[in-house]
Amino acid sequence: MIGGLALVSRKQWRRNKTRTILTLGGIVIGVAAYFAVAAANVTLNDSLRSTVEQIAGKADIQITSGESGFPEELLNSVRRTEGVRVAEPALEIVGTTGDDARLLIVGLDTTSDLEIHKGLVPDTNVSIENPLAFINKPDSIAVSRTFAESNGLSEGDSLVLMTQAGKKSFTVRGFFKPTGFGAVFGGSVAVMDIVSLQQIFDRENSVDRIDVLSAENSDTDTVIAALRKVLPEGINVQRPEQRGEQLEKSVSGVRVALGLMSFLALVISVFIIFNSFYISVSQRWKEIGILRALGVESYKIQLLILGEAIVLGTLGSVLGIAAGYLLAIGAAWIMSTAAAVGYGAVSSTGLPVIEARSLATAVLLGIIASIIGAWLPARTASAVDPAIALRDIENRTKEVRMGWTRTLVGIGMIALGLVLTWFADASVGTSIQLSYWFLIMLGMVILLPGFIKLGSMIMRPFANRFLGIEAVIAIDSMARTPRRTSATVGALMIGLAFVIANGAVIQSQKSALSGTLDRSVNADFLVTNSTQIRSQTYHFTEDVADRVGKVPGVKRAEYLRVTSLEHNRENVALLAHDMEGWLTRSPNALDEGDTSRVKSKMSAGEGFFVSQNFAFRFGIRLGDELTLESPNGPLKRKVLGILEYYQSEIGTVFIERSLFKTYWKDSGVDYIFVTADRNADPSSIKEGIEKAVAGNQQVFVYSHAEYRQWVLGLIDRFFTLGYAQMVIAVLIGALSLVNTMIISISERKREISILRAVGGFRGQIRRMIVYEAMAVSLIGIATGLVAGILSAYCTLYISVVVVAGYRLPFEFPYMLVLISFPVVLLISALASIVPANRAASLNIADGIVYE
Amino acid sequence: MNKQSIVEFESVSKNFEGAHGVTAVRDATFEIREGQTVAIMGPSGSGKSTILNLAAGLDNPTSGSVYVQGRDLSELSDNQLTRLRRDKIGLIFQSFNLLNTLTALENVSLPLRLRGIAKTEAEERAKSLLDLVGLNDRSDHLPDEISGGERQRVAIARAMVAEPVLLLADEPTGNLDSEAGEKVLRILKDLNSEFGTTVILVTHDRSAAENCNRVFEIVDGIISEESNDRRAGASLTEAMATE
Ligand SMILES: Nc1ncnc2c1ncn2[C@@H]1O[C@H](COP(=O)(O)OP(=O)(O)O)[C@@H](O)[C@H]1O
Ligand SMILES: [Mg+2]
Predict the structure, then answer these.
(1) In DSSP terms, which residues pair with A567 in a beta bridge?
(2) Pocket lining for ligand 1, CB < 6 angstroms
(3) Ligand 2 mean position to B27 CA, how many Å?
(4) Which residues of chain A does B62 touch, with a Cβ-Cβ cutoff of 8 Å?
């Protein structure tokens, strides 16, 4: 019996190739979007982790401290600690070639046997023609073969790099084949002797890291504990994996965005699949009636349809994975670009990593989504009274009734979702937060038939009066098949909701940031030496910075050092300001605390400011004591001010620069805020600053307006991914629309043929289909707006408050909405051209004969 | 009085391609003149609907020519053909073929609305036709809210609303009980006598056929006209028409 039914299925598929292909297409798109994102996620993860692991080499323990490095003397204490077999220092400097290519220079103790760093410079892969010269001449550098090739370097060539300490010249005296970590950096690595590197960069006796290999018979955790006891506070002793975790945390915003995106792809995919199966079953009403009349039990018909769902779902998943892999190559690129722009993290452009788990999830999701999509129509179809199906094909559709129960359930779900989101604690986790959002969307979907009815009631008289009968028929055919329409409207609605929510987050970030820029970064000029928003490697030295203050027309130059610090095991931003200058320039900088009253205390280094998110995360209130761990011991001060600041997703601490210099032994300068004399000429000041610094370091001089634009531009670049998501969301919605329209054309052959038979022109049929697409998308837009506002609220709350710790003002993305609505209408109209032409060229006689 | 030719088939054949190629109409030649009522009879699958579809320009002949009011349909563009159908031809089907989403009134006014006639004017005219078929109290009902006979009367009103010269009815009584069927046939006859509309009626009902001026018989795609001798007791209508 089942064999016989399978034959029926196969015949169906062959006879309705287009429908089968479209159903399959829906599954493929959904699975592909999901898989691409999953693969890209895994790839980014792996590359971050392997970066960290490879940097560590074979080390099982890493000792680090903020960004400023720590004294080399600690090496002795480390080596003396029990359980430590080998301990090697490392220093890392980033340089830029004339072509703006980055090169990471790792300083190692080349006199040791480099046991820990075999991963970077394996014996077999190194070629140093003249080892004596390499060791004796301090400008010796070994570069990777990849880098040598792309920069045309051979033995003895000189290599000039722009570094944080200005232009430096090196001589290439060795090559190695990049493996492991060298390959992770795309081959842009070089190795030098650590002593030479320290000299060149004025980092004598300072190292960035000590890599430790513990003795074979000792337990790593015990060694870590012993090291922590020996070393001063503020020095981190960790397994290399933990550093990876921190890096991962720093891209968690991107992750949540991607997670949401794949979730969205799945939800829409369920809609598309649901749609296709629903219509497929409607078209087979009569066939199912015959099967029922022949005595096939209703559960067997359900099995038949579910069997089809499984076969199509499996096939679609497999194809979707293939398509997703191609997409993933693109997504990985976008993500690593975003990560590099936002965090200065290292990117890999290698092929996406495929994980067995995401493969399995993709296949499973494809099949499960198909089954969900097929379940409802399967149940309905098998419940058909065979007599009715056979007698009167025109009476087959059961209307979805928008009763009170349904309305109440829908509204109730939305309300519950909102309440849960509102009262939920950050600790419940992202997936639970997501489920609240899902609850709200589900409520919206349940209300869709009501929205559709309402929409058609509003549009019908308008269409009747102004657009002609073809528009009326279009609206009617939309309204009389609420289930089919709901599926399409639902796909559009969720896509648009996503676009609006995404836009609201971006807009809110931008507006919050722009507020901060105006309040706190309000100098006439801002001088930096990097185009990275959070550079870890470029700073001005103090004497270079001092030249800026001497440029004619400059009234005051304040320095800011931006670095990071470990606080309660979280990586927070540390901003060392010239407090006197800053607070004079920005009297309204604080949200809590009185600037004029605390100015002198802050300038004397007697207090800290913290950002709102720092206060929120660590439970700090104005006037509380706060202890920071500096490389030179704990530093305890009162919190004298709290302000909204978006430097770090974890939190930001502000301290007086002279205090920072004392405790961190770091006199670097990342930003110079320049206040100009009242009647000075801006362009001559700019030129003067550029001239003063030029030749030593790169310098970028921004006016306040330029800086604003630059920072907001960085946000835009960072949100490239967000914009990509929006495009995908709209495209998937449009695709679903085309899908439904084409399927519904074959379902409506008869109706279209009647119209043609009683004198409807091809053009009128075409218009009817386009009108219908537009009516559907208008309702999609209206509901998308409602769902979008709800989603924006959830997204802002979930991803921003929970992940980033910011409280952002709610900003409605009016522009985006204004732009996206006509775009969606246009896309729908364009998308309906293919189905419209199909409808217009149907053979009339065939359609009339059709049932 | 030599009436104008309305429909003329000249050696028309129609083949359907496919796994089991079928010749639905074989070398049909006949002419139907203005004001005539013509019945086409024949077993199921013999080609009756195909003949009507060809006459309405809903389908193209494989060979031969179909003329409507002297115009060769194969020489008309799709838009010209649509216009001809819209202005000259009314179609009635066995399965009513009303649009389920439109009310009776909207269904009847559909051809006028498709011509661009304003809603109020179109519906006024549609109302008078619903009156004519005795359904003025059903105008706001959807097709599935009225009986089969009423639906077919709505279909007739729709076919007549644009005042066509030719009415093609494909088994209009096939889905109706005999009482409803008789009502429908009476309306068709009245239309013919009142407005002079040419009616081509496909039917299985011998007595309905007897009421027509001419009767065609079609078997396996071959069409032939029954001679007047066979039709003993020709109706009064026919006597009047052939005088
Ligand atoms: N679109 C079509 N494709 C293939 N064969 C067709 C098509 N339409 C009609 N036929 C065939 O043509 C023959 C005549 O059909 P039709 O004119 O509908 O018969 P009738 O109306 O007399 O019952 C039948 O054998 C039928 O199967
Ligand atoms: Mg027929």
Answers:
(1) A570
(2) A 846, 849; B 16, 18, 22, 24, 42, 44-50
(3) 19
(4) none
Q: Which residue's CA is the nearest one to ligand 1's atom 21?
A: B49
pLDDT digits (tens, 9 = 90+) for A459-506: 999 988 888 888 988 898 888 777 778 877 888 888 888 788 878 877
User: Residue B87 and residue B80: Cα distance in Å, rounded?
Assistant: 10
DSSP line for A101-159: -EEEEEEE-TTS--GGGGGTS-GGGEE-S-HHHHHHSTTEEEEEHHHHHHTT--TT-EE
Is the Cα dihedral A711, A712, A713, A715 positive or negative? positive
Q: How far is CA A110 from the centre of its chain?
A: 40
DSSP code per residue over A336-392: HHHHHHHH------SPPP--HHHHHHHHHHHHHHHHHHHHHHHHHHHTS-HHHHHH-
Count the domains in chain B: 1
Provide the Cα torsion A637, A641, A642, A645; round to 10°. -90
Q: Scanning the structure block, which residue is given the tokens 């001419």?
A: B214
Q: Residues near A97 by Cβ (< 8 Å), separated by ≥ 6?
A: A103, A151, A159, A160, A161, A162
Nearest to A469 among B79, B113, B159 (CB): B113
Inter-chain CB proximity B97 and A851 less than 8 Å: no
* Tokens found for residue A781: 């837009």
Range of the domain at B171: 5-241
Could you tell me which chain B residue has the CA closest to the CA of A469? B113
Nearest beta carbon to residue A758 from set B95, B116, B158 = B158
The total of other beta-carbon atoms located within 10 Å of residue B90's CB is: 29
Parallel, antiparallel or unpaired: strands A61-64 and A209-214: antiparallel
> Do the beta carbons of residue A562 and residue A540 sit within 8 Å?
no
Place of tokens 């790099």: A161
Chain A 721-780, residues with CB within 8 Å of chain B CB atoms: 750-751, 753-762, 764
Beta bridge partners of B10: B65
The pTM of the whole model exceeds 0.90: no
A837 touches chain B (CB under 8 A): no
Query: What are A659-669's pLDDT values in tens digits?
Result: 999 998 888 88
Is B82 in Cβ contact with A760 (below 8 Å)?
Answer: yes
The CATH number given to whatever domain includes residue B36 is 3.40.50.300
Angle between helices A285-293 and A2-15 in degrees, nearest 10: 160
d(CA A258, CA A260): 5
Of A468, A469, A845, the CB nearest to B58: A845
* Strand-pair category, B214-219 with B222-225: antiparallel
Residue pair A669/A640 in contact by the 8 Å Cβ criterion: no
ipTM over 0.90: no
Closest alpha carbon within chain A to B117: A468
C-alpha dihedral, A141 to A144 to A148 to A150, nearest 10°: -140
Backbone angles phi, psi at B149, to 5 degrees: -65, -40
Alpha-carbon distance A829 to nearest alpha carbon in chain B (angstroms): 21
Q: List, for residues B63-103, the tens digit of each pLDDT value.
A: 999 999 999 999 999 999 999 999 999 999 888 889 888 89
Tally C-beta pairs within 8 A across A and B.
82
Nearest CA to ligand 1 atom 26: B45
Spans of all domains in chain A: 1-58+240-398, 61-238, 448-521+717-851, 539-697
Provide the shortest C-alpha distance from residue A292 to chain B (in Å). 24
Measured from the Cα of B17, ligand 1's closest atom is 4
